Amino acid sequence: MDVRTCLIVDDSRIIRKVARRIVEGLGFEVDEAADGVEALSYCAGLMPDVILLDWNMPVMDGLTFLRRLRAQTGGDHPKVLFCTIETAPERISEALSAGANDYIMKPFDGEILHSKLSEVGAV
């Protein structure tokens, strides 16, 4: 069976650690990036199957990263889940129209993450 890969993009080390534990428990190989620039550079070398993406980050925010990712060769492949505290419907629709596959509110747990990954066909 192919190894599924996940990139967790969040400026919070604690959020990355919690998400990593959950996603590894679902059988993914996990890497981390602290901002959109780091994440884009990672994706240029290795395109992951799934990206858990924070919205508000220094250097490059999640929405900018997502638009640039989707414009790259192969950038349409990863399932992208925004994981954020943004709750405004217009922000959610902005994320989805920029190419996000789904949306998870922070804080999230393993059950929520597993169900969202199932919905987008990643598990």
Automatic annotation (TrEMBL):
PROSITE patterns: RESPONSE_REGULATORY
UniProt modified residues of type 4-aspartylphosphate: 54
InterPro entries per the UniProt record, alphabetical: CheY-like_superfamily (IPR011006), Sig_transdc_resp-reg_receiver (IPR001789), ST_Response_Regulator (IPR052048)
Domain Response regulatory: 5-121
Pfam families in the cross-refs: Response_reg
UniProtKB keywords: Phosphoprotein
Any GO BP annotation: phosphorelay signal transduction system
Protein name: Response regulator receiver protein
Organism from which the protein derives: Brevundimonas subvibrioides (strain ATCC 15264 / DSM 4735 / LMG 14903 / NBRC 16000 / CB 81) (Caulobacter subvibrioides)
